[in-house]
Amino acid sequence: MRWTQDLPEARRTPPEPMGEELDQVLRVGPFHLALRAALSSRGLPLQRVQHHLANRGIKVGVTSLCYWQQGARRPQRAESLKAVRALEEILELPPETLLRLLKPPDPRPPARPYRSLVSVADALHELLKALEAPVDGGLHTVGHHERVSIGARRELRVRDSQQVVRAHREGVDRYLAIHHGDPGCDPARVAVRADENCRAGRVRHHHRTGVVVAELLFDTRLRTGDTHFFRYRFEDGTGGPSTEYLRGFNYAGGQYVLQIGFDERALPMRCRRFAQASSGAARTEVFDLTPSGRHRTVHLVETGVRRGILGIDWDWG
User: Fold this and answer.
1) Domain boundary pick from 77, 102, 127
2) Could you identify which of 160, 200, 253, 276 might form a hypothetical disulfide with 147, taking C-beta atoms 3.0 to 4.6 angstroms apart as the criterion?
3) b/e sequence 255-270, b meaning 16+ C-beta within 10 Å
4) Going along 129-171, which residue ranges are E strands?
C-alpha cells in the first residue's frame, strides 16, 4: 500500500497530524469519502474552499463541490481535475492523494495468469472424475455467504462458507466444494473443515493449478424441492500475496454475499468489485468499495446471481 504544501497565507502553523481513520480513508477511498473526511478534518466550509480555488484562478461552484463529496458526481474534465489538484494543496494533503482515487481501474490481466480456463477446467475435470461426480450435482444454490480472511502476510488464510441449497432431483446427499489457491499454494496442505450439517468425505487436489475439491456429505438424502443449510471452510495460508477473490456461477438465481476481511497489519490501498461474463472476458460493473469495520472489511451483495463471475480485487501499496 502506498502512499505539503501550505496555504498561501503568512505564518501558518504546521498542520495537525492526520488521525488513523483519516489516513486510512485517504488511502483506500473512495474519492467522495476521502474528500469529505479531509474537508471535515480541516474544518473548511465549502464557500471557503471555493474562495481558495478562485484565488488560484479555478472556478468551481459550491454545488459541484457538494456533489463531489456526496458521491453524486465525480470530477472528470480537465478543469475539474485541476481543481482536485488544487484541493490537495488547500487541504494540506500529499500530492496525488485525491487524484489517484479518481484513476480508472487498472485494466491489467488477472494477477494469476496461470489460472487459465483450460488448465483449471482440465484439473477440475480430472478431480471430479476421480470423485465420480455427475455433470449435474442435483443442487441449486438458494443463498451463499462467503467470508474470506486475508492474513498479515497478505495471504488468503481462511475461506468460510455458509450455504443453502435446494435439490432438483431425488436422492442428493453430497456437495462438492472447490477451492483455488493463490500462486505458491500447496493444495496438499489446505485443510477442509465441515462445520455444520455436513461432514468431510474424500478430498482431492491438483498441485500444478492449486485446485482442491472436497466432498461434503449430508446426513440425509434430499428429496426434490428439499433445502439444506450447511457450513464449511477451507484453511489455506500456503500461497503468496492475494490480490483478488472471485467465484463462478454456472446457473442463474439465488443470493450471493462475499465479505473480504483484512488483517489490520496488512490493509489494501483500494478495493473494487467486478463481474465477468466468462474467465477470458473483460471485467465490467467495476466499482470502488467502501471499507467498513475500521476499514478492515469490504463486501458485495448480489441478490439475483447471473451466470458468470463475481469478485473483489484490491491493490497493495
Assistant:
1) 102
2) 160
3) ebebbbbbeeeebbbb
4) 139-150, 156-167
Distances 211 to 34, 114, 155 between C-alpha atoms, Å: 39, 12, 16
The Cα–Cα gap between 316 and 265 comes to: 12
Domain total of the chain: 2
Chain centroid offset of residue 142 CA:
22
pLDDT in tens, 184-217: 899 999 999 999 999 999 999 988 888 899 999 9
* CB-based contact 164:144 (threshold 8 Å): yes
Contact of 260 with 148, CB cutoff 8 Å: yes
229 and 191 in a common domain: yes
- Asked whether the beta carbons of 261 and 314 are under 8 A apart, the reply is no
Residue 3 domain-assigned? no
Question: C-alpha distances in angstroms, 295 versus 19, 40, 71, 109, 246?
Answer: 13, 18, 18, 27, 21
Task: Answer whether 201's CB lies under 8 Å from 174's CB.
Answer: yes
Let me know the angle formed at the C-alpha of 6 by 5 and 11, rounded to the nearest 5 degrees: 145
All three cell numbers of 315:
491493490
End-to-end CA distance of the chain: 2
What's the CATH number where 41 sits? 1.10.260
Spatial separation of the C-alpha atoms in residues 207 and 184, rounded to whole Å:
10
- Give me 288's grid cell: 470502488
> Which residue ranges in the chain fall short of pLDDT 50?
1-18, 107-118
> Residue type for 73, please?
R
Q: CA–CA separation, 220 vs 198, rounded Å?
A: 10
pLDDT tens for 262-291 read: 999 999 989 999 999 887 788 888 989 988
Q: Is residue 42 a contact partner of residue 6, using CB atoms and an 8 Å limit?
A: no
